[in-house]
């Protein structure tokens, strides 16, 4: 509609070489881009790339419920508020769009109202607009899908799951830590073993750490078994043990015991998985799909599931289940881009191609993770299934919104009495709470507007705006305090006083002073002697994206034990090893620690200087 009247450009991170963001902004009327690209441009020192907020007259923030905490949306809008409160002009108008602002975790009306007000403050909202006067006419064009709860009984017998739990019991007995919970097959248990792994790494208890890692894999298998089939759970477990044997060079005594434990029960697990009773949830799903896709009205649907692994397993089930071969189902995955510890991912190009085929009707069913909850507008989609999901009210509303066609069905599949069912019922109550909170804030807005007309004294500060302005100041003060805390945390130790160790075998491999940041994100070791500690795979990492200044090389692994550390990149012709923060253990003057993020390491990491690095290498060559 705007083509021909306006110069429009679309920018993505996977476009490869392109004109700078700043150049594009100055030569176009409208830019469509990710928030990450805009934030990079706002902080870039390069003239061709850099922009200021004052270069724009309007910012449209889609799915603006993400404007909170440390999201990139909120980082950009915090910059906006800083400029506004310091009277740095001009500034663009901000338009936020969302169908589900949520309650911010609140379960009471007052907390939900505070969350909506904080969101308004973050977006510098003047007014919340939603259909009111013409709501009936809107409903004629956008009909709500018919929601149904498809509930099954829990498995009456589960010999495969029972054997997995028996093996986990043996690992617990080996650990001799009776205080550990044995609530196997839950996300709470997963959190426990992740924390156990971190604590063991920091204490130098390598055998305890590997036990925690193997317990997490068994727990993953139980979660997969609960969601799909026993054979899928066993395949995931077998893949893990195959990788352990293929990559590990130095094997601890505990690892030998864990490998032997799995091997001793592998045949029994295989037999039980092969003859395991059908998952009751899959039986329900089969019934739903046969009913909807067995008709002749050209159905199109999306199945939402929790993980990439379960999405992959569901697609295999669709291909292999005899009952699914009698209906016209043309299914494909739609999952997250990028690499994953699960080893299953899609590139952005893959995603775009799948969406194109689904929109055109070449595909009629997507098996998706949360990546498909937002931004997917397919008018002909009339079937949405949320399969055993444990999410919040925003995800529920977003997933439901994918069913756009008339007479649509929105099915929730879970076991009776399950945590997933309890959460879905809670989500419905939270959605109603969210709507009440929005309506109350809207009335505040209307009262403010009416009072503004009646009141001519500038000192008459209306309640809504007073709350918003106070919240904005509080948010800026809080963010400034958090930034000060981050800076203080990163300045705890001199980088040269921090030693780096392999997380798996604890071999010393360098110092914090060897590290640099490439493009503010990729942490590389620039010490030329570091290469003696790792190997590089001959096969490069496959990332189906073109980056402006770098390309991926092979994976890098500890030369001593085989632990994966990250990957090599070729940055402007220079080969650099990029390290995953979780692959390193940091020894500080106060003890050892494992960091979850590079931003949480207790020492400063300067930016990589390409010219200085090249000059240093040339100097080293001349000295030789």
Label this structure with key terms.
624 residues; 17 helices; 20 strands; six-stranded parallel β-sheet; four-stranded antiparallel β-sheet; alpha/beta
Task: Map the helices and strands.
Blueprint (H helix, E strand, L loop, with lengths): L7 E4 L9 H7 L2 E4 L1 H9 L14 E5 L9 H14 L7 E5 L11 H14 L12 H7 L4 E7 L6 H17 L11 H17 L2 H22 L2 H18 L5 H22 L5 H14 L7 E4 L3 H13 L10 E4 L13 H13 L4 E4 L14 E5 L5 H8 L8 E7 L3 H36 L8 H28 L8 E4 L5 E4 L3 E4 L3 E4 L8 E7 L9 E9 L5 E8 L2 E6 L4 E5 L2 E3 L16 H14 L1
Parallel strand pairs: 1-2, 3-4, 5-10, 6-8, 6-9, 7-8, 9-10
Antiparallel strand pairs: 11-12, 11-19, 13-14, 15-16, 16-17, 17-18, 19-20
Helix pairs in contact: 2-3, 3-16, 4-15, 4-16, 6-8, 6-10, 7-8, 8-9, 8-10, 9-10, 14-15
Strand content: 15-25%
Strand order of the largest sheet: 5-10-9-6-8-7
Low-confidence stretches: 449-461
Average of the residue pLDDT scores: 88
- Cα-based radius of gyration, to the nearest Å: 27 Å
Reported for the largest beta sheet, the result is: 6 strands, parallel
Counting helices, strands and paired strands, the structural category is alpha/beta
State the helicity in percent bands.
40-55%
| Oligomer classification | single chain
Termini separation: 64 Å
Number of strands: 20
Characterize the structure shown.
This protein is α/β, with parallel strands linked by helices. 44% of the residues lie in helices and 17% in strands. The protein has helices at 21-27, 35-43, 72-85, 109-122, 135-141, 159-175, 187-203, 206-227, 230-247, 253-274, 280-293, 308-320, 348-360, 393-400, 419-454, 463-490, 610-623; strands at residues 8-11, 30-33, 58-62, 93-97, 146-152, 301-304, 331-334, 365-368, 383-387, 409-415, 499-502, 508-511, 515-518, 522-525, 534-540, 550-558, 564-571, 574-579, 584-588, 591-593. Strands 5-10-9-6-8-7 form a six-stranded parallel β-sheet, with helices on both faces. A hairpin with a 2-residue loop joins strand 19 (584-588) and strand 20 (591-593). Helix 3 packs across helix 16, helix 6 (159-175) runs antiparallel to helix 8 (206-227) and helix 8 (206-227) runs parallel beside helix 10 (253-274). The protein is globular, with a radius of gyration of 27 Å. The termini are far apart.
């Amino acid at each position: 509609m705007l083509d021909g009247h306006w110069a429009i450009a679309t920018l993505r991170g996977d476009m490869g070489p392109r004109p700078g963001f700043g150049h594009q902004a100055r030569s176009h009327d409208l830019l469509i881009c990710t928030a990450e690209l805009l934030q990079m441009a706002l902080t870039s020192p390069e003239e061709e790339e850099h922009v200021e907020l004052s270069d724009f007259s309007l910012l449209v923030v889609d799915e603006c419920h993400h404007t909170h905490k440390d999201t990139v949306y909120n980082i950009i809008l915090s910059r906006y508020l800083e400029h506004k409160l310091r009277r740095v002009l001009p500034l663009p108008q901000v338009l936020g769009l969302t169908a589900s602002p949520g309650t911010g975790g609140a379960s009471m009306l007052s907390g939900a109202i505070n969350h909506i007000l904080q969101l308004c403050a973050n977006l510098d909202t003047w007014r919340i607009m939603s259909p009111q006067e013409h709501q009936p006419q809107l409903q004629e064009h956008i009909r709500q899908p018919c929601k149904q709860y498809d509930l099954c009984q829990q498995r009456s017998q589960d010999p495969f799951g029972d054997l997995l739990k028996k093996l986990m019991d043996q690992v617990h007995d080996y650990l001799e830590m009776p205080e550990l919970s044995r609530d196997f097959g839950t996300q709470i248990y997963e959190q426990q073993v992740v924390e156990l792994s971190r604590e063991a790494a920091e204490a130098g208890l390598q055998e305890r750490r590997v036990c925690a890692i193997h317990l997490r894999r068994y727990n993953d298998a139980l979660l997969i078994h609960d969601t799909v089939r026993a054979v899928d759970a066993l395949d995931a477990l077998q893949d893990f043990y195959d990788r352990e044997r293929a990559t590990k060079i130095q094997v601890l005594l505990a690892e030998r015991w864990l490998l032997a434990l799995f091997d001793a029960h592998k045949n029994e697990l295989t037999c039980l998985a092969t003859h395991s009773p059908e998952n009751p949830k899959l039986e329900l799903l089969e019934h739903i799909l046969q009913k909807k896709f067995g008709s002749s009205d050209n159905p199109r649907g999306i199945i939402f599931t929790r993980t990439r692994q379960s999405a992959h397993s569901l697609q295999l089930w669709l291909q292999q289940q005899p009952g699914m071969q009698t209906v016209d189902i043309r299914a494909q995955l739609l999952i997250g881009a990028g690499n994953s510890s699960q080893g299953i991912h899609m590139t952005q190009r893959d995603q775009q191609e799948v969406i194109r085929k689904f929109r055109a009707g070449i595909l009629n069913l997507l098996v998706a993770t949360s990546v498909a909850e937002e931004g997917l507008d397919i008018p002909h989609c009339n079937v949405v299934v949320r399969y055993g999901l444990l999410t919040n009210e925003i995800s529920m509303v977003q997933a439901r919104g994918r069913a756009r066609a008339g007479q649509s069905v929105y099915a929730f599949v879970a076991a009776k009495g399950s945590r997933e069912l309890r959460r879905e019922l809670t989500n419905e109550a939270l959605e109603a709470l969210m709507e009440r909170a929005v309506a109350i804030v809207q009335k505040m807005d209307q009262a403010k507007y009416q009072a503004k007309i009646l009141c001519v004294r500038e000192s008459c500060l209306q309640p809504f705006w007073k709350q918003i302005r106070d919240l904005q100041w509080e948010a800026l003060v809080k963010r400034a305090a958090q930034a000060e805390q981050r800076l203080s945390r990163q300045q705890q130790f001199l980088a040269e006083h921090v030693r780096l160790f392999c997380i798996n075998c604890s071999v010393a491999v360098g110092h914090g002073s060897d590290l640099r940041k490439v493009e503010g994100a990729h942490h590389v070791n620039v010490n030329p002697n570091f290469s003696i500690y790792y190997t590089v795979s001959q096969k490069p990492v496959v990332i189906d994206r073109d980056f402006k200044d770098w390309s991926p090389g092979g994976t890098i692994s500890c030369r001593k034990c085989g632990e994966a550390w990250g990957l090599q990149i070729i940055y402007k012709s220079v080969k650099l090893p990029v390290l995953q923060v979780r692959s390193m253990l940091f020894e500080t003057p106060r003890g050892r620690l494992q960091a979850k993020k590079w931003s949480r390491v207790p020492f400063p990491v300067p930016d990589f200087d390409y010219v200085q690095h090249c000059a240093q290498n040339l100097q080293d060559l001349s000295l030789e």
